[in-house]
Amino acid sequence: xxxxxxxxxxxxxxxxxxxxxxxxxxxxxxxxxxxxxxxxxxxxxxxxxxxxxxxxxxxxxxxxxxxxxxxxxxxxxxxxxxxxxxxxxxxxxxxxxxxxxxxxxxxxxxxxxxxxxxxxxxxxxxxxxxxxxxxxxxxxxxxxxxxxxxxxxxxxxxxxxxxxxxxxxxxxxxxxxxxxxxxxxxxxxxxxxxxxxxxxxxxxxxxxxxxxxxxxxxxxxxxxxxxxxxxxxxxxxxxxxxxxxxxxxxxxxxxxxxxxxxxxxxxxxxxxxxxxxxxxxxxxxxxxxxxxxxxxxxxxxxxxxxxxxxxxxxxxxxxxxxxxxxxxxxxxxxxxxxx
Length: 339
Fold this sequence. Notes:
- The protein has helices at residues 34-44, 59-68, 78-85, 93-106, 117-149, 159-169, 174-207, 209-214, 222-232, 242-247, 272-287, 294-306, 308-329; strands at residues 3-9, 13-20, 23-31, 48-54, 73-76, 252-257, 260-266.
- The chain is of the alpha/beta class.
- It has three domains: 3-106, 2-Layer Sandwich (Nucleotidyltransferase, domain 5); 117-207; 215-329, no CATH class.
- Strands 3-2-1-4-5 form a five-stranded mixed β-sheet. A two-stranded antiparallel ribbon has the order 6-7.
- The longest helix has 34 residues, at 174-207.
């Protein structure tokens, strides 16, 4: 007889429900530690067939830790599970665990591919660097805004020139300097740390054959290549390259009901950060890249018909398809002759 386990994971405690032969055999709670959960599952469900939990902040840790303990861990799409869990009369952690155990028993769920440790480490590096870069931008904008109030306009500049401009304008402004200089020091420190993470990211991209391959595309740098390879992991995860665009939310939504049938905006599902990076790469291809390619030619023609923004989205979608095909075939990007 097989046991089916549902886990409703939260930060401190995890609700556990065990089902066997269509009936619940045990229900309880356990601290949210995979090692302790593994002990509870072995005790209460010695014939564990499926251990199901939803996607969430702890899902990667739970999946790898439970799998390492020899348990059949399965992470399912939270949006897909929500439709079934909302059928319960009362929304409680225990009822959610019961619902997940029932889904595990009947097999009505959509399993989510959980990324490996190395991929998550690289994605964390990209996310951390991106956050620090945004903080530096926010701090510089804050400094500009504060100084503008007192009639001190910081000229457009980046890096060391920005810092020198700010210090020059504050020479005779002792009262304002006591406020702005701590912000400037924080800006300098965060910028230094962002540069360090950037160096780590570039070094990792240079050591990766897949990243070097993707970086042969004009407009695709170390950040975009790393984000894409860690999101895709194995090209075999997608049956066709065209499905990558839909997976990243770059395809249009469709609504059909009776006589109503129309396409809307892009779905914007999936990895929002990677989708933004692909859009930026598409913008570079359409505006600043001088290398000729079929992708650029196609995008420029499309821009004349539908406008820049919609053309950039289309190029981003096609770029995702091309990048997946390159990883699958192992070939570099083909530029036009003479480009």
